[in-house]
Amino acid sequence: MVHAGAGATEDERNRGTLVNALLHRFGQLSGVGGELRPGIVHRLDKATSGLIVVAKNDEAHRRLAVQFARRVVKKTYIALVHGWVRQDHGTISSSISRDRVRRTRMTTKRSGGREAITHYTVQKRIDSKYGKFTLLELRIDTGRTHQIRVHLASLRHPVVGDALYGAPREMSAKNEAGISLPRNFLHAAALQLRHPRTGVELSFERPLPEELKDFLEKIGAM
User: Which sign, positive or negative, has the C-alpha torsion 133, 123, 75, 73?
Assistant: First the structure.
């Protein structure tokens, strides 16, 4: 978890969150985000790996937040989804709102939601003994809760491992043991932004973590 929720006890707030680790490392971070979110400029879902932006002081936080609000920050993700995505590239612009029935989910099926824009490019279509998959590169113009996950699920291509949005918990093949992924196959791979003080363009990249590489090997994609 990036940070504890509002209903967490004091013990839970200090157990295993990214915020707790950052405070242990740096001692103090910006206070713009409030007591529960020191330093956190934007969030990643608990089951998503990769790059996240953290501010050490309030001025840096405010300037970075302006970049996110103005869509200056470029965010690139890698996802593996079930099925073959038909188009080689496309844009999903369905608005997103809270699911009225399952409150832990977001949905594109309600009117009046918040604008959300996701661009995708097919990197590879995979035909494996466990089924068909598509490896995607995605860029998002907005940062809504569960945006990539709910957008891809709306295309009937849920992210592998994302049982909340319809992905199977286990994939099976004839005469083979089933395989599963205990997290979402979603990775924040690259970030481009301007240094909050100097304005210099900065680029950061992180490769896929080992558990995602291992899964690709299991389905014969590497």
Answer: negative
Q: Is 45 a catalytic residue?
A: yes
Beta carbons of 68 and 42 less than 8 angstroms apart: yes
Q: What is the largest CA-CA distance in the chain?
A: 59
Query: Which distant-in-sequence residues (6+ apart) come within 8 Å of 185 by Cβ?
Result: 79, 80, 81, 159, 160, 161, 162, 212, 215
Name which of 82, 19, 43, 36 is nearest 188 in CA terms. Answer: 43
For residue 96, the cross-strand partners are 114
pLDDT tens sequence across 105-130: 999 998 889 999 999 999 999 999 99
In the set 45, 58, 88, 214, the catalytic residue is 45
- Rounded to the nearest integer, the mean pLDDT of the chain is 92
Half-sphere exposure of 188 (CA within 13 A, CB side): 22
If you search the block for the tokens 């809504």, which residue do you land on?
144
